[in-house]
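step: validate -> pass
step: tokenize input -> pass
step: predict -> running
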Amino acid sequence: MLYIQQSLNPNEEIIRVGEFHWWYTFNAALWIVIGIFLMSGILYAGYYFEVFQTVQQYVPTTPIYDPDRDGYWDAAVEYRGGFFGVLGGMNIGFKLGAFFAFVIGLLAFLQKMIIMATTEICLTSDRLALKTGWITRNTEEISVDRIEGVDVSQGVLGRMLDFGFVSVRGMGVGEIALPQIAEPIDFRRSIERARSVKKGDI
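step: predict -> pass
step: emit ->
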């Protein structure tokens, strides 16, 4: 909360900090799994292609579904130096495809984690603030006494695991759409209580 803490006004207090739900981190990690899965699929296709080409080169009349094909297949793998020998001698196109598949998954994971690490969501006694950005900084703020309404959006899984999206409408200042956060209903209650305190209802 570096930005929020640095920008606090005199007598302004932090009431609640919005936090990303663990489901967000889980979804980010899935990109690495997807990258590994795609990489493995491409390597498997390349391995199959290389061994099949070797079999066809030395036994050109062997059909794909020949009953004796397994014997030729094992011999081709051994001839190419075993499993790792086949992978090492694989066509460069398969290697590059597998590499980029993994890199894309890794970059997608890092992007989501950077977003989480550089996003600040904070409700204070005076305002609701959303700060995003890493190299550049973008901030959106609404004074508590200018908040007109708060909407919560949750799917079935969001209701089960208690995460969702919160949109805060301000009078004459537009809307702030918060990213997926944990305990969105409680966060809305905190906003309503801050509004009531600001108006002097409590």
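step: describe -> Residues 27-114 form one domain.
step: cleanup -> pass
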